[in-house]
Design brief:
Number of helices: 14
Structural class: alpha/beta
Oligomer: single chain
Mean pLDDT: 88
Number of strands: 18
Largest sheet: 6 strands, parallel
Strand content: 15-25%
Length: 516
């Protein structure tokens, strides 16, 4: 909300989260360092803390440059097709807006300075796990679309880098003429250059984080990617209309495949949950969270998952007049957890779709309730090594099997991404005498001899609905040769009954004259 929770010489924090300066007695004038407090608490408890910065508020260094006489501020602000900056044509939401052009070198340097200051304060703490930044149309770590960033300075650098010439002239209408060319005949080159420029900038920020701590991560949080400047830019709207998501993101300067060989960068694939007011809302969220098109955009980078729970808000105006503090605005927000086995679904889908290396789960609050349904799953996931797991060569729906090798050992996990239990058998290339443990209990792995005529061994187990099974084998060359899946009798009967009911409803619909 335009401020920080730590003292900063670069950001000039407001009293938004520290109102002590307003005491008339002068008893609390010093700004508190709440980030330092958090780091010390996390140090003490053996936890990891990863602060997040939004970069959606004015930066003093850039505002001074814009205010200077002459052309010192040219290219700093985000210019659109009418030649005016974003702030000249739009109103910020609570002061948050894409004020600056992230392609501009002075903007990039100002952001690097802030990141360098922040990491310099935190890197010595054992709990410091890195830095996350939020992508979205309300900030300036990405672009808004192909029609933004067409100022003279940016266009000159684009022409120099690509050898292309944009015949737009020098008149006041040059911005709109540029946009006509850059969104049609030169759209591919324009968007590719912008993606490369932003990719280099993001890698530069990652170097600021990892330079002081090689184990720290620079995380690109994509929560804001789900909603654009208007409904035309929304990812969920694009899914409904069949628009290509790749085109939507490259127009914003984002190509996550550029981070494939950048080990210090992790990209969070966003998903969202909210209390369903209707089946339509639930279906829209589900299509967004399970979209194969969206998964494909995150397939070629080091991947994490961000589960964002949208709270339900309620205005209680009747309490306003009774409040002892006036003026009053009574408002409630609740963030309920999904009930039962469905509470495991998001974790399993993230592992099945992309082997999420980090999983962030929350919203305005930490999800509370239904912890027992996810306790074992969480323990299994945290027990897996922090290395990429790859799909095994053998697969069988609805089970997804992934495998990894580390220090002479083989790690395997299998996830069940349906709401029915399943009996699973994994055919392994190793013998029955290979030792190993099952996570998280560390019980010994029990391997059975393969059927006659087949080499290797079999691991057999039952997976609960939206469940996970994982093991470690003391052999670094084990492969999964076969995956056998069988549903319990009760599950088969339940599925058969659902299919019959669906067929009956379909037959009734066909006989209904309204559908003819």
């Amino acid at each position: 909300d335009g401020s920080t929770i730590y003292p900063s010489s670069l950001l000039q924090p407001t009293p938004r989260y520290d109102t002590g300066i307003f005491f008339s007695s002068g008893q609390d004038p010093m700004r508190k360092d709440f980030l330092e407090l958090l780091l010390r608490v996390f140090d003490r408890e053996g936890l990891k803390l990863l602060p997040l910065a939004q970069f959606s508020t004015p930066l003093p260094a850039l505002e001074r440059a814009i205010a200077e006489d002459g052309n010192a501020g040219v290219g700093i602000e985000l210019i659109g097709r009418d030649g005016r900056s974003w702030r000249e044509t739009h109103s910020p939401a609570r002061g948050l807006a894409p004020y600056y052009n992230p392609l501009n070198p002075r903007v990039q340097q100002a952001i690097v300075d802030v990141v360098d200051e922040l990491v310099g304060r935190c890197h010595s703490h054992p709990s410091f796990a890195g830095l996350a930044v939020e992508l979205g149309s309300a900030g300036y770590l990405q672009l808004l679309g192909s029609e933004w960033g067409v100022d003279d300075d940016t266009i000159a650098r684009f022409e120099q880098a690509t050898g292309l010439q944009i015949p737009a002239g020098t008149g006041s209408d040059r911005f709109s003429r540029r946009c006509e060319v850059l969104t049609t005949t030169l759209a591919a080159q324009w968007n590719r250059w912008r993606c490369e420029e932003l990719g280099r900038f993001h890698r530069r920020l990652a170097e600021c984080v990892t330079r002081r701590n090689a184990r720290a991560r620079f995380v690109l949080a994509g929560r804001g990617l789900l909603n654009g400047e208007n409904s035309v830019d929304d990812v969920d709207q694009a899914l409904r209309t069949g628009q290509r998501l790749e085109t939507l993101l490259t127009a914003r300067g984002l190509d996550f495949s550029q981070y494939r060989d950048a080990p210090g960068i992790m990209v969070l694939r966003p998903a969202q949950w909210r209390a369903p007011d209707s089946r339509l809302i639930h279906a829209l969220d589900d299509s967004l969270n399970t979209s194969s098109s969206l998964n494909a955009l995150f397939a070629n980078c080091r991947l994490g998952s961000l589960f964002f729970h949208i709270p339900r808000e309620c205005r209680v105006a009747e309490f306003d007049d009774d409040s002892p503090w006036q003026p009053a605005y009574t408002w409630l927000a609740s963030q309920a957890s999904v009930a039962g086995i469905e509470n495991r679904r998001r974790y399993v889908q993230a592992l099945a779709a992309g082997d999420a290396q980090m999983i962030f789960d929350g919203g305005w609050l930490i999800p509370m309730g239904q912890e027992e349904t996810t306790r074992r799953l969480r323990r299994v996931v945290t027990g897996l090594p922090a290395v990429p797991f790859h799909l095994s060569k053998s697969q069988s729906q609805p089970i997804t099997v992934r495998i990894a090798r580390q220090e002479g050992e083989t790690w395997i996990y299998a996830v069940n991404h349906v709401s029915q239990a399943a009996h699973v058998g994994l055919g392994l290339s190793c013998g029955v005498d290979v030792g190993g443990e099952i996570l998280p209990e560390q019980d010994p792995v029990k391997l059975n001899s393969a059927p006659a005529g087949r080499a290797g061994s079999f691991a057999r187990f039952q997976l609960e609905p939206y469940g996970i099974w994982a093991c470690r084998l003391r052999d670094g060359n084990v492969t999964v040769e076969a995956v056998e899946v069988a549903l319990p009798e009760a599950s088969q009967q339940a599925l058969a009954a659902r299919i019959r009911r669906f067929d009956e409803r379909l037959a009734l619909a066909r006989d209904d004259s309204r559908f003819k």
